[in-house]
Amino acid sequence: MLYRQLIIISLMTILLSSQSSFLLGAEEQYQTITAPEVKHRIQGSSPGVLIHVLSRLEYEAQHIPGSINIPIDKLATSDQLPPAKDTPLIFYCMGRK
Question: Is 32 helix (H, G, I), strand (E, B) or coil?
Fold first, then answer.
C-alpha cells in the first residue's frame, strides 16, 4: 500500500512539475500600459485598435475618441476585431470612480 502511494505521489509530482515548466515557458500574451502610454500610442502612426469593454450605455456616456465598443462579454463573438493577428489591441475601461 505504501509503495502504491509513493508511485502516485511521484507521478503527480512529475505531472505538476512538467505543467509548471510549460507555463513558465509560455510567452506573455498581453501587457499592462499606463494612460500616458495609451495617449502616446494614439498619437503615433499605428496605434492599433482601442476597445472600450464596458456596456454600450457607459460607452455613450464617456469614451476615448476613436475607440470602438465591444462589451467584455461579447469579445469572443465580436466581428469588430481586426482579422490581422498582429494588430495591437488596447482594451480599456474608464477605471475606478
Answer: coil
pLDDT band of residue 52 (cuts 50, 70, 90) is: very high
In whole angstroms, give the CA distance from residue 13 to residue 43: 50
Helices (H), 25-62: 35-43, 56-61
Q: For residue range 7-27, what is the model confidence (pLDDT) as tens digits? A: 555 455 555 544 444 445 555
Task: Quote the pLDDT of residue 40.
Answer: 87
Query: Rg of the Cα trace of the chain?
Result: 21
pTM here?
A: 0.65
70 exposure class (CB count in 10 Å sphere: 0-12, 13-18, 19+): buried
Give the position of cell 482594451. Answer: 91
Torsion of CA 29, 93, 75, 20, to 10 degrees: 30
End-to-end CA distance of the chain: 59
